[in-house]
Amino acid sequence: MIQSATLDFLKDLAQNNNREWFQDNKQRFEAAKENVIAFTSELIKELKNADPSLSSDIEPKKCVMRIYRDIRFSLDKTPYKNNFGISKLPSGVKSEEIGYYVHIQPGASFAGGGYWMPQAEHLKAIRQEIDYNADDLKKIIDEPGFKKLFGEFRNQEQLKSVPRGYDPTGDNIDLIKLKSFAAMHSFTDAELLKDDSPKRVAAVLANIYPLTVFLNNAIT
């Protein structure tokens, strides 16, 4: 589970995002990071039950993203993120971009997966797959349990114009115009603090597994 001290650290960091404060609280950071690594380890164990394609070589420590921000090209010069991100949880072997992500931030935590902003070649292939096999995708995203967890899949950002070669009046044009093919579910602080929170998060992500299978088939 995520410990209350981890969330407290992130709350305080958001209010004191500077190097001096961070150095004075380095031990708190290290403790919070170790907590997130332990959470990630349990999450991976649970998620493997639903997604057999997850590699047995995944190292929890390497899945926890750096807290240091890259400020070289940003107007925001605060040096640290006010969250912990858990990534590098790829589903399937076709693309490292297709998989799962967990975001831990007081009052703004979520878990999600799929494929966010595919590269041009993959985007073209996914659109073609939708054109040929839209019913397979709709069976996944229109399933009541999926919609309850993740909302309306079609409400993600779409192109303003229709991609070249597709009928603007086609039944599935709302899916073909999507820029991303991802699903996200929010978690409250109280949910993350529960003893079984890794299992709860993994159970949500397990519902995204069929989507990752569809996406991987598209880019084969």
TrEMBL record:
InterPro entries: CHP02453, UCP028451. Signal peptide: none annotated. It holds the Pfam family DUF2461. This is TIGR02453 family protein. The lineage of its organism: Bacteria, Pseudomonadati, Bacteroidota, Sphingobacteriia, Sphingobacteriales.
